[in-house]
Amino acid sequence: MQVQWFPGHMAKALRLVKEQLKTVDIVIEVCDARAVMSSRNNELSSILNNKKRIVVFNKSSLADDIITAEWEKYFNASGELFVFTDAVTKKGIKALFNILIHKCAADKRYNRAVKAMVLGLPNVGKSMLINCLSMSSGAKTGNRPGVTRGNQWIRLNSELHLLDTPGVLMPKIESEEDAFNLVAIGCVKDTIFDKYAACIEIIQFLKFKYPHLLKSRYKLENIDKSDDEILADIALKRGFIVKGGEIDLNRCTDIIYDEFKNGVIGKISLQSPHII
Q1: What is the number of H-type helices and E-type strands within the chain?
Q2: Which of 106, 164, 186, 200 has a 20 to 30 A CA-CA distance from 257?
Q3: Tens digit of each residue's pLDDT (9 = 90 or more) over 181-204
Q4: How far apart are CA 213 and CA 234, in angstroms?
Q5: Which residues of 72-84 are buried (b: 16+ CB within 10 A; e: fewer)?
Q6: pLDDT at 226 over 80
Q7: Which of 193, 56, 179 lies closest to 124 in space, CA to CA?
């Protein structure tokens, strides 16, 4: 799958990030725990240079627990500052808060709040993470890419201030694997790619990596078929039939895509450390 999406507001957001980096003590790079490498924006890394950073892998309750444990070992060995979180279940939130306060406190020259910039791709849960940290609903959230359009300071308490920034994709998505992964976890606006093709790739992935989840979610007895046939079987199981007895493929692909993106099918990881 190939996809490119870099509207004007993202280019503007990158410029604002560059301008405001000097005002913060640390950067919180929020990624998706299901696609650990694909959801990291290399463009942001080049901008940050030597700025202190913590990588937050959010939505970890949607990821495969076994593979998440492997990633934790990988990053512990790398020495990179990281934490796996979930803004819905509150997993890892306390650990993140403690890292932000205590890791930065030693570096501050003045007795003031830690200032952290929150960066990441669209729909990785940046604003929800901030809401979770603040135990309030002060930041605008939504399960679709591109909700936050402008930088906004959020004062959590006397110890920590956060700068929320819009979700920004890389200007060019180099690999087809990254493109599929970003589509599958909802980082790309669903009007700019072929949803049917995305669903065929989702079925291919599930057949290879999580056949038990594919069978159980869609009540399929036999998945030793072509991807198109499996898609048709799912549509028939769900009763997606239009007038004249034809299969409603549009409705079926919408459902499969949404269920995969939102973690309804089961705990799934798109990438593991073994591929590196």
Answers
A1: 10, 6
A2: 164
A3: 999 999 998 889 999 999 999 999
A4: 13
A5: bebbeeeeeebbb
A6: yes
A7: 56
Q: Residue 5 belongs to what H/E stretch?
A: none
Residues with Cβ within 8 Å of residue 146, at least 6 apart in sequence:
7, 9, 122, 166, 167, 189
Give the closest residue to 156 by CA, choosing from 105, 102, 98, 115. Answer: 115
CA dihedral 115, 119, 122, 128 (to 10 degrees): -30
Residue 146 to residues 9, 60, 140, 149, Cα–Cα distance (Å): 9, 21, 11, 7
DSSP for 182-221?
Answer: HHHTT-S-TTSS-HHHHHHHHHHHHHHH-HHHHHHHHT-S
| Residues paired with 162 in a beta bridge | 116, 154
Residue listed under structure tokens 């507001």: 9
14, 168 contact by CB (below 8 A): yes
| 26-32 and 160-164 beta bridge pairing | unpaired
- Domains located in the chain, CATH noted: 8-164 (3.40.50.300), 194-275 (1.10.1580.10)
Q: Does residue 181 contact residue 39 with C-beta atoms inside 8 Å?
A: yes
The single-letter code of the amino acid at 264 is V
Beta-bridge mates of residue 149? none
* Helix ranges restricted to H, 79-119: 93-105
Among 12-21, 62-71, 111-120, 170-179, the range with the most confident prediction by mean pLDDT is 62-71
